[in-house]
Amino acid sequence: MTSSYSNAPPRRPLSSTSLRWLLPIMLVLFFLAILIWLPWQARQMESNERLEQLIADTLWVEQTIRFQMARDEESLRALGVEIATGDLTPKQLHERMARLLRNGKELVRVVWLKPDGALAASSDPLPNPVELSPLSRETAEITRKTRRPMYTQPAAQTQVANAAPAAVLMDYHVPLFRGNEYLGDLMATFQTSALLDEMVPWWFAQDNQVSLVDRDDKVLARRAAAGPGHGVYTHKRALDLPGASVTLVTDSVKSAPKLLPNLLVGSVIVLSLGLLWSLLALWGHISKRLAAEGALRQQMSFRTAMENSLVTGLRARDLEGRITYVNPAFCQIVGYPAEDIVGKLPPMPYWAAEAMSEYEARFASVLAGKVTPQFETFFQRPNGERVPVLVFEAPLVDNHGRQTGWMGSILDISDRKRIEEVNRQQQEKLQASARLATMGEIASMLAHELNQPLAAISSYTTGALNVLERDGPVERSLLKPALEQASAQAQRAGQIIRSVHEFVKKREPLRQAVAIASLLDGIRALIELQARQSYVSYRTEIPPDLPPVRADRVMIEQVLLNLTRNGIEAMQHVQPQRRLLKVVAAHHADTQQVSVAVIDQGHGIPDEVAQRLFSPFFSTKAEGMGMGLNICRTAIEFHGGALTFRANPEGGTIFTFVLPAATEQETI
Question: What are phi and psi of 622, to 5 degrees?
Fold first, then answer.
């Protein structure tokens, strides 16, 4: 019989003594785990706090540096405008440049270079010839083409007098233009080390190594008041400099927090001195907070002083469109104190009634999260005065990267508008002078042309008188043809005189719907007069369904008369059978434009002349002033069109200008 018991020892249940030992051991292990976890967690929290503080301080330093550089940029651009308008004497210009160096320690030189690279003015008492680096020359060429200020990539230079030996410098180029005339380059040189020395607060430099590096992480400048950083807490922030890649790098001198060497001893110390440590920590935290608040108040006072000294108006709005901040310059522009504006929702008191729909449309786009980065408008002051302004708008982002509203910069462009109006009036005077000069050239031809109808009138009237002196009844059939011919010749002479009077008459530009055929009919007598003198055949090809253009009649008549006269003069030395002048018009439905081409078969335009054809005061005629084609192009561009030329395949030149076609509402 087989036994039912196995040979394995029996299992015994845990005794109460084992349970008593197991529970304390688990509690001890849990306590030790707590002791290990708490210092580690505290270390992590401290590391995160230090890193967050470093990021916030770095952002603040970057904004401080960029704000000062933006202020320097604005001062340089304002100086460039005054140079372009010619309002400054050489002495005043030198004083303004020297003042820029005194106000900004980061600037070591301000010079004005002419288009050929020669030195026109300098902030140095004894200016020396300026030798630009290849990077600086390349940047100057780019700014000339784009008409936008730019920085050069920082590099070591030794030829600047006020800079430290082998200092890393960065040039800022502002192109100078008077209209389309390039006046040269206003260049300011920044010393990168001075940016850190002047704009990084001492309290920040005591805790961090601050550096400026390029795109290849090459150090351009460094400030390490408390020694090199440990590489534990670092942050990079790129400076938004057009044309240059410069990054602000901060490296804290603090090392990572360490765990206590003996957790058990540390736990006893923590438990016994916890209260005292808490009080000391609280006192230290309060002291640091008070010091930080004092430094912050000092920096806020400094920033407020800078904002109050700006001539550019600043306006901050939240996401609902409510104004949260304005600076004194903005209040001066709109004529309202800050307490009447801050905290208000649209409509604003400085909105003009006639432009209310425009303001409301822009406000609706702001609420939708879309703004126009740059636009022109006008504000109304309490006395009813309208102030034209240029508005720049950009998102306002907090230190967490969240958009909290919109920041706008407002420039009062009243002076610019007045200058534009003066330029427009001067252009009109120049066009009137050009018309008078044109009429002076054709005065001799007018005398010859008027002699013909006057002689015909005299002949017909003499014949009629002879018929009347005959004895017997007078037959009407003999007198009527003579009188009709005399009347036709008188109308012809009158048409020539009216054409001249309308052409030289000075008046304000008036845009209206006008047909090309009507324009040509108005000056046909003057064109044919010049054509007959040079034995040139004149022909027009105008489609019957050609839509009218929206233009000033007299200005376009002047353009047509100048172009046809140039074409007639270009064919004086060709064979008589090839002397054909054509005016061809066409409608381009895709662009809603009308083109008019003046075609001659003359000698053509050489390449060296074509490059300067539209330049003011350039002429191939011995007696010419060189303003005819320049005025023609200005008149066409004033109407929103363009004037171009190309070679005629049959010999000669084709001048073509395009004008916008008039709409049906304008035609009615």
Answer: -65, -35
